[in-house]
Amino acid sequence: MAKQISEPKFPIQLTGQPLGFAELLVIGDGRASVSAEPDGMARVRAARAILEQAIADGMPVYGATTGVGAMKDIEWSSDELDQFNLGLVRAHHFGTGDPFPTEVVRNAIALRINTALTGYVGCTTELVESYLALLEADVIPVVRRTGSIGCADIGLMGQIGAVLTGVGEAVYRGRRMPATEAFAAAGISPQRMAPRDSLASLSVNSVSFAAAARIMRGAAGALRVLLATGLTASGAMGASRDPWLAVTHVGTAREAMIGSWLLNASQGWDWPSGTHVQDPLSLRMIPQVFGAVFESVLTSGHKILAATGRSDDNPVIADGRVLTSGGSLPLDVTVLMESAVLCMAHAARNSFNRCVLLGNGQRRDLPVNLVPPGAIATGFGPIIKLAGDIYSRVLSMSNPVSAQSIVVAGGMEDEAAFLPLVVERFERQVRAVRRLAGLEALLAAQAMDIHGDKPGGAVGLIYEVVRKHAAFYTVDRALSAEVEAIEEELASDAFLSKLIAISPIHAIDDFFALGGFGMQGIET
């Protein structure tokens, strides 16, 4: 039997500074060997010394020598601390529902390590080393998705912390099993929760930030494809490219970026002409729509990355003291993500409007429902209703939720951001946008074939994917499997890499590490 050779891992040293999407990508995929910077560990030790001195001086320390939430005024004796801290983390293993992907959990662990290295937390170096051991052994806690109101991921991080103590479940070598079995198989030991370690292992937003980073990168990729299908539909309808040229002169920086991409990516084939004076807004204003959408996604992405290098703990060690903190409210990330959620609805509407234009018989003498001349068929009229359904779903998730009222813990905890819920809704929007891109591509390919167009460049790539999975429509047929196959390939990393290779947008692709870009210094 041949000896199995494991692939080398990329060394990533955490320093307490914000991480990038490239680093999160390889950590999340399990392709990184993660370590802690010695200076960062020194900061952990220094903060721990301050906290231990405060405890020795008799100072009540929230969540270390006292209860939490409504039980904040209960103080524990030294004989009770071990039992309290072990019980605290296990009591917060209450999440329910489907689990997060393992890449989210790996990154959540890395973020907890990284923010501890800032020196503001007061945890022990042993806790940091236990997290590092999980990543090194690739014992990944099962973290069920529902259990956080977005004011510290107590019910989410608590599932990771509980696994550290040997309870709960973990994934090891592709199998889900009890934590005790995973630890035994990997040869690692459970963590004793010293005072402060327990609260430090659960009362941060690392899972939410990791999930937000993953889906924001996913959104950037989905929008890159949707922009390309928008270009494809524009070509199929013979849209004028003059508005795209105009925006490079008079638009915002992001609008000009999209206008330039549309102009460049439309080269390489005989672009049709079907415009009389000017086009409908959904064709003319693609740069304005996608310029705003990408601006929002980039801004949200920068804010998420900033959160990967800051302590959102309570309490914190600063100015040589143990200080009560309100840093566990991730409202800055949440509000910007909600803006991105709204922008996704604008992108979906823009695509849906083009789907309607493709099928209504008003552009370039295209037949109604894209039924070829002489064919007896209903054509694509029904599928345009599907596009409307998908757009409505995206729109229905765009109302903000972060400001809704909540009061828990006996009135002590009356602020929340609901970041996990915002992330979940954003994930659903991204899935819907990917399907909408598949529909727009299918309709555009039909229109091109009716006129005998021979697209090239980015449009040619889209066309090839459609025709790989769906033939030219002449007789009514079932389309569900074809739509799903087109959607799946357009959403694949392989297709995105091809698209970016011939038509990059460096400001997007480099920042989000799409298509192999932005990996300098990581995969060397």
Describe the structure.
The protein is mainly α and 524 residues long. The chain has 20 helices and nine strands. The strands form four sheets. A three-stranded antiparallel beta sheet has the order 4-6-7. A hairpin with a 2-residue loop joins strand 8 and strand 9 (321-323). Helix 1 packs across helix 4, helix 4 (102-116) packs antiparallel against helix 5 and helix 17 (457-469) packs antiparallel against helix 18 (480-490). It starts with 9 loop residues before the first strand and ends in a 12-residue tail after the last helix. Mean pLDDT is 93; it is low at 1-5.
* Radius of gyration based on Cα positions: 26 Å
Mean pLDDT: 93
Which consecutive residue ranges, at least 5 long each, have pLDDT under 50? 1-5
Counted by DSSP, the helix tally is: 20
What is the number of E strands?
Answer: 9
Summarize the helix and strand pattern as letters: EHEHHEHHEEHEEHHHHHHHEEHHHHHHH
In what range is the share of β-strand residues?
A: 5-15%
Shape: elongated
Largest sheet: 3 strands, antiparallel
Roughly how much helix do the residues carry, as a percent range? Answer: 40-55%
Q: Span between N and C termini?
A: 31 Å
Query: Structural class of the helix and strand makeup?
Result: mainly alpha
What strand order characterises the main sheet?
A: 4-6-7
